[in-house]
Every structure is written in structure tokens, then in C-alpha cells.
Write a structure and sequence with these properties.
By secondary structure, the protein is of the alpha+beta class. Helices cover about 40% and strands about 25% of the residues. The strands form two sheets. Strands 1-2 form a two-stranded antiparallel ribbon. The chain has a two-stranded antiparallel sheet with strand order 3-4. Helix 1 packs antiparallel against helix 2 (about 50-75). The protein is rod-shaped.
Length: about 110
Amino acid sequence: MNIRRIAKLDSLKNGTIIGACVGAVFGAVALGLEQPVDSAGKKIGFVPDTVGKKIGVMAGVIAMYAGIGALIDYAIKGRETVYERPVGVPSVHLSPIVAPHSVGVAGTIAW
């Protein structure tokens, strides 16, 4: 058996992880913003004011971006090479054969 390369389908794991990391960054930046107030001093905007709500928003943002990352990774069809045999250079090896009453040549060819 002559195996030159072993490849497997690319998993969605790396796209999901990258998407979740991007979502964590964007969520942290969004939650770190100051909540705008109107002229009466009332808070307006989307930034939650309690820790529980902030955790929920952060989890939602991370999940949303993880899903987007998985979809992008799913759209990119590909294979990941697990093993690839080193490519050898074609070669010819010759060896002289000398006997008391004869002469010859032995050889091997590799590619």
C-alpha cells in the first residue's frame, strides 16, 4: 500500500471559536460604553443596568457571533491535511558487480 496523503474534512470548531472571541470583544466594548441620557437625565439606549442583564446580553452576543463564525466556516469547503509523505527526488543508484569471471552492474530506480 502506498499512502501519499491523509486528509480530513475541516471542522466547524475553529470558525465557532473565532466568532465567539470576536463576539466577546464586541460585547465587552458595547457593555463598557456609557449609557446616554436625555435632557431630563433619564437613561436611554441599549446598555443594560444590572449585572444579570449584562451577563445575558454578553452571552447572547457571544452566541450570535459564534453562530456567524460557524456559518462562515461551513461556507468555506476544505480539507485539512493530517499526513503527507515527503516528496522524494527521483534517483538512480548503480553498483558495480565484479566476480572472478564476470562483470556486471546492479541498479535501483526510486521516485
